[in-house]
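Journal club side-thread
Mid-discussion, someone asked how the predicted structure for our own chain would compare to the paper's figures. Pasting it here so we can look after the session.
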Amino acid sequence: MVQGGEMRKVDVIGSVRLVYYPMESDSTLIGMNVSETSLLNIFLENRKMKKMTMSPKSNGTLYPMLQRPPEKMKLDNFAWLDYIRPLNKEDIFLWRGKKAGQELKKSNRSAVPLPNHNLFNKKK
């Protein structure tokens, strides 16, 4: 259990995709950000996010609130496991495992050919 105002760090490692809504200090929404990165660090204090960093670099788009594309508001291929989903913001700190046989399965993806792969071939 975390005591007092101790700062905690959560690392998300791998192919990270996120949709979030940055706010001004007065809680005014700035917009909707859709980003991808390979490492996300989230810093929590008193169970509230204080800061997050994406590294080594990220790519993303910040949409003004009135111009949010509906198709970007949810992550593609997101698996919503109803029986373990958080029911409120405090619930994210409780661990519930997946049921047997319902673990996420690794998918193997084949390499995608480069669009201009012939540019470097020697001409005969």
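Post-session note: The beta strands are 7-20, 31-45, 48-64.
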